[in-house]
Amino acid sequence: MDDGTDQSDEPTGGAGAPRGVAGARTQSTGGLLNIGAFARRVGLTPSALRFYDDCGVLRPARVDAVTGYRFYAEDQRERALLVRRLREAGLPLVDTAVVLDGDRESARAVLEDHVERVQGMAAAARAAARDILRDLGSGGGDDDHGGSWARVDGAVLASAVRQTAAACAGPASRADHPELGCVLIELADHEVRLVATDRYQLSLRVLRPTAAEGEPVRILVDADELRALGEWALRREELVLRTDGRTARVTGGGESRDVPVTAGRFPDYRMVLDSLPPTEHRVVVDRAALREAVTRFGECRAVVLRTAEQHIEVSPTGSGAGRVMLRAVCSGGGLLRIAFDPGVLYAALSAGVGPDVLLDVATAVQPVLVRSADQGSFTTLVMPVRADTGTAV
User: Fold this and answer.
1) What gap in Å lies between CA 305 and CA 312, rounded to an integer?
2) What is the per-residue pLDDT across 127-177, written as a single tens digit (0 to 9) for each?
3) Rounded to two decimals, what is the model's pTM?
4) Domain at 148-270, CATH homologous superfamily
5) CATH for the stretch 277-382
6) How far is residue 282 from each of residues 148, 190, 269, 336, measured CA to CA in Å?
7) Contact (Cβ atoms closer than 8 angstroms) between residue 60 and residue 53
8) Taking burial as the number of CB atoms within 10 A of a residue's CB, which of 38, 126, 386, 392 is the most buried?
């Protein structure tokens, strides 16, 4: 789960969330285990446990009313282990809930359907994996030039490039605002952050380097240049990214590539993330199924999502014609109706990782947080639109 980097006992989750206070890392309280200790006990990450709490799959035994820290009981271990096994099998959360809490016949039917889907994808997956293994290189080392630097895994950097570059603006918007056609790369706080936005969506991926030194620095890199770098990085086991803010170079596998740096002023993404209102509605749904539903309506102006009784209805511009009903885990107050530009929502879903997608919605007119359990370091914000016109709200 995640990318193996979340070792904290209990940050509360979300961008810019505060970290633990003194005493928060106590291994147990009144016979209960804190989130870090329980995570180690059952082989999950704290971010995965927070996600399963959000989705109602694995609630903590107690949540501290003051700090918000989660505590788990020993008798929850068996359920947590089953969740882990189901997730290792790639089962979506909506199906996981059936296996955990449904009757035996329903659980068997869900698992048999999943096995058929997996078998159908296996041949293509094996072929793709063999191609990648043939192309993988090795090596890497530090560059001797000045500036700040960070050492990262090549495949992880390639994944981050793919996810964030998808949020960059198209050629029409770049003419007036060229920075929207770039990805912001930040080296700071022992992290490498990649950020992109076209004003309708914003994507942020945080990487934890194995080593890093230097002062905080940020650069803008054209999305097309960065995609080419990502393809090159995929074949290197380890890379060193070094920059002084004016120039940049990536070294790995005994080779180096200069990275062209673009001048410009990138939007203040931190202000956007910090100003997000509290979540009022939370929806967990099969990511591939929602993405397929979004593409079924052709060139519609907007795609509308409605929640109803642990289902989500997907329809074009609010019309019931051709609507698609998907099973979902829905929580929050009342029913939700929200519209998106289908192209923008499709891109956000495609950039995600894992079988599930979680939508955190405050209101139908404010940015929606899109995230997954399988990669807590990747965040996407998507702006809703008006259902009748497809224009920004």
Assistant:
1) 7
2) 676 667 656 543 334 444 468 999 999 999 999 999 999 999 877 666 678
3) 0.66
4) DNA Polymerase III, subunit A, domain 2 (3.10.150.10)
5) 3.10.150.10
6) 39, 31, 23, 9
7) yes
8) 38
